[in-house]
Amino acid sequence: MLNTIIAYDRILFLMPEFNGTAGLKQLFGRYYRNFRSVEPDQISKREIGYIPFDGTMVRHMGFRTHQEIEKFAYEKVPRHLYYSSTYYKFPLEKKMNDKGWQGAELIFDLDADHLKGAPSMTYEQILLEVRKHTYRLVQDFLMGMAGFGEDELKLYFSGGRGYHVHVVSEKVYSLSSDARREISNLVRGEGLTIKDALPILESSARFTGWLKWIDDAVVSIYEGISKGMFPAFMGEKEISAMQSALETEINFLGTRAKRIQVFLRPGREKYGFLNQYDTHVVSSIIDEVREERACEIDEPVTTDVHRLIRYPFSLHGKTGMIVKPVPLSQLNSYDPLSDAIPDSSDVPVRIKVNKNFSIRMKGELFSLREGEHNVPGYVACIAAGMGGAQIISIIN
Fold first, then answer.
1. pLDDT, tens digit (0-9, with 9 covering 90-100), for 188-216
2. Residue 334 CB contacts under 8 Å (≥ 6 apart), including other chains
3. For residues 149 and 328, is the Cβ–Cβ distance under 8 A?
4. What is the number of H-type helices and E-type strands within the chain?
């Protein structure tokens, strides 16, 4: 029974029920004939794992060179291929405590699982939205707030519905799971409420990061209020009471000033003059800033110091697309549905479609009804990989 529907106007990612994968494995095999592995670094210190087409996860493997893993991929044709973000002294040991942990990259996994409204998005919309979160993570947090340089970051399209960001730096290798959780909480804006933020806003001499974003938004909103433009979340009674309160004078830094003038100044001083209406406004602003700035990442990936992550340039077993490095300068224009498709999958393939579906790849919209069709291999891969079709034959 088909339980994955691929539809360009609505795409649901459910666990597929595979009805034979020989054709899909054959297409993957064409790619792995010429597989070239130039990443990751220090491969002899990495644990390797994979999922075959006819079994479950195999892990605690290791290779001395990239040439060895190229040979392995050619011979085994993995459906999914992984490596550890961790460096080990003995990566082949079965017990984690025996591997000799030597540090781990800091990993961020961004995909549709944590996106608000993802079930109603198309595949293409999901990729665009996750790309926005990835850009925010890199620019606002890793390069902005944390100060990492481009040479300390590696970015990959995951091959599926998002991106992986690796921090490769001596600054992070020794971080514990708890330290990594704090970083995860920071980029997700976890626990960012007025109760937690107000004491810091009142006492901080200099605003950076979340505090600056909040303060900038507060000043902007009160500039609007000063011109009679009130936020949508305020009722008529609140607006009337707030207008009166903002026109009253207070003793501010040794002089008399209208309260509205105080709220137009950046900095901490105004947060000591909040009344109940201002508190409501600032609380709502904090919620909105979090919604706009937070990056929805998969926290367990970031906190796990023994994590296996998708191997660079391998194929994703549900899409047939490449786990491909993305230059930071190209992220805003990166289109996986064109840029992450292997050349080897241009071959024509005969498939049997179980349910109508459509998807746009390499700039072309493929709309297929139930029945048999000839399509490019990359369309066959994503249809068969997600359980929406069976591969009948490769036509050449």
1. 999 899 999 999 999 998 999 999 999 99
2. 131, 157, 326
3. no
4. 12, 17
**Burial tier of 27 (Cβ tally within 10 Å: 0-12, 13-18, 19+):** buried
Q: In this predicted structure, what is the pLDDT of residue 20?
A: 58
How many other CB atoms are there within 10 angstroms of residue 112's CB atom?
21
Long-range contacts of 194-200 (CB under 8 A, 24+ apart): 194/279, 194/282, 194/283, 194/286, 197/286, 198/271, 198/274, 198/282
Question: Cβ-count burial of 133 within 10 angstroms (0-12 exposed, 13-18 middle, 19+ buried)?
Answer: buried
Distance, in Å, from the CA atom of 300 to the CA atom of 144, rounded to the nearest integer, reads: 23
Domain membership of residue 269 (yes or no) is yes
pLDDT of residue 137: 97
In a domain, 222, yes or no: yes
Catalytic residue positions? 109, 111, 298
Answer yes or no: is 270 within a domain: yes
Query: What's the domain count of the chain?
Result: 1
Whether 387 has a pLDDT exceeding 90, the answer reads no
Beta bridge partners of residue 258, listed in sequence order: 249
Angstrom distance (rounded) from CA 244 to CA 375: 68
Q: Is residue 160 part of a domain?
A: no
pLDDT score, position 203 = 93
Instruction: Classify residue 114 by burial, with Cβ atoms within 10 Å: 0-12, 13-18, 19+.
Output: middle
- Residue 78: cis peptide before it, omega within 30 degrees of 0: no
> Please, are residues 11 and 122 in contact by the beta-carbon 8 Å criterion?
yes
In 3D space, the residue among 217, 219, 228 whose CA is nearest the CA of residue 262 turns out to be 219
pTM score: 0.88
358, 345, 370, 351: which is closest to 19 by C-alpha? 351
Domain range enclosing 222? 194-293
Give the whole-angstrom CA distance, residue 179 versus residue 103.
13
Burial of 379 (0-12, 13-18, 19+ CB in 10 A): buried
Q: Which of 11-20, 192-201, 263-272 has the lowest mean pLDDT?
A: 11-20
